[in-house]
From TrEMBL:
Naturally occurring in which organism (per UniProt): Nocardia caishijiensis
Record-annotated HTH araC/xylS-type domain positions: 67-166
Keywords: DNA-binding, Transcription, Transcription regulation
Protein name in UniProt: Helix-turn-helix protein
Amino acid sequence: MSPVRAWSLLGVSPRDLGDGVVGVDELWGGSAWRLRDQLAAATDWDERFTLMKSFLALRDPRHEPDVEVVACWNDILAARGQARVADLARSCGWSRKRLWSRFAAQIGLTPKRAAMLVRFRCAVDGLLGGRTAAEVAAECGYADQAHLHRDISIFADSTPGVLATRYLPDIARYRHQAWGTFSQYPADPLGR
């Protein structure tokens, strides 16, 4: 789920969910139980992803993210995580403090952390695509290969070499087939 959609679909700020696991039935009540039953009865992953897409499409958005937050998220994606927070704040006419507050409330992460994760995801795509860690570090804006290594260690509890050769589980392949890459680029104005 795109972070700019999470606040709308969940009905609560991602930041307010805390660090623990929150059951979907706590968020969506009886409709979550029906979805769970339908997913359990589905015969394959394609059917499960179709059910999930339909369920999310029918959700009545309770909140719409600020246009400025969506624009900043889109700028982070367009820059492949190499956007500077000061530049983002300037582009939307907000102070850095206001941007951090609104972005964190609606996305669940600060703009800096979101940019780090987008940059990391681009690095993972590069490594899985067969590029060397040095090439990926340079392409993705890391200061050096050690900086890339630190991020992969933090976010994936792995090394670039292990990550590049790790076999993807079935669910990851099916997710990619059903949803596409991490950074999706639909034409709608709410962002990716």
